[in-house]
Amino acid sequence: MGTRYLQNNDPAQDPALNPSRGPKESLRRLLGKSPNSPWRGRVGFPAITEAWNGAVLASKFGESGAMIVFGGGHDDYFGSDVHAFDLNTRQWSRISDGYVSGRPEEYGPGAVYPNAEYPDRSPLPPHTYEYVQYDPVGNHYMLFKGQTELGPKVKATPIPHLFNLDTLTWRRGPKHPSARLNAGGWTTWDASRRIMWGNSGDYGRGNAFIGFSPYGDNGDGTFGSWGTLYPNKLLGAANHNAMKIDPVRDIIVVVVHALDALYAIDPSDLGKPIARLSSAGTKPKITEYAAIEYARGLDRLVYYSANDGAHIYSIEAPSGSTWPQLTPGTWVWRKILDDENTLDPIADAAAISSHQVNRSHTFGRFRVTTYGSTDVAILVRHIDTPVYAMRLT
After folding, report:
1. Helix (H), strand (E) at residue 58
2. Has residue 1 got a pLDDT over 70?
3. Which of 187, 222, 238 is at the close of a domain?
4. pTM over 0.85
5. Which domain holds residue 6?
6. SS in 3 state form for 252-300?
């Protein structure tokens, strides 16, 4: 059954999944306090949005698509539940309970899982950052990296996972032998090549720009394959960026907050160095934790950062469709917020929420979808606040 707010789908609040364990917990619940659970972690369910986590927009889940939310990570939340916000019914639902049958010692520090997944095959939830994307052909939610242990000394591993939104089941990809996909990385889905490109963050000496294809049964319980490993494209400036492929011009554009600039990667020649792009127009200061999307109706990239409040920006490519035309040209930024807008979703949500929020975090919780010729931006903020939408065309 759907609910208005994400927090109402917390599996810890379901007594069938999380029965009271002992008199203290029973008293806690009688007093109306939030239930504890073995998978709670230090923060609990609010960490699914606040602990450095993104989301994807699944265009083929539900009549009009849905925002899919999963995550936790580090010492914050150990639950592997998956949630969907249906854009047609405007309701949240829990579409996977996650691993809720474990004993307390099976979660968090000291509980090691070499394949980065719980006994039910759901992945240990990392901070997802910009490491999640959606494949509309396979109807997969894709998680680029895994964790073999959660807790204060969290251990990352280059093991991807796929959540099929038709069967609501998880699959695991093979472990890459040498990639270090540590904290703060970013990805994009390349629909023409059907590859998820990803660049590691610098935390933990992340070393990779690499692609993962979700297709193929390897016959050993894993699915999909890794491509060639290239060096980190932005060594020393790789944390908390975002990238998006422009499918018309076949160019990957990266917003790099540490350098306050746009950069480009050529997906047809990945050995080529990353290239800085020129900007003009009403460009804001690029900040970390932001998002970049492509709007098909506008035929422009769209940039959004919670640090800019209500403002959304389009980025128009220079004329031409080849790398030599696109990289020397000027990319033009424009504000696309109506002058009469009265709603700032960042301030509005922060004022509503009863939890401690990470106000500057956007990541992939900002997405753009297109219905016919109409582009719509969708923004998920906190577990106890509305989902926000803006028509872009």
Report:
1. strand 56-58
2. no
3. 238
4. yes
5. 1-238
6. EEEEEHHHCEEEEECCCCCCCCCEEEEEEECCCCCCCCCEEEEECCCCE
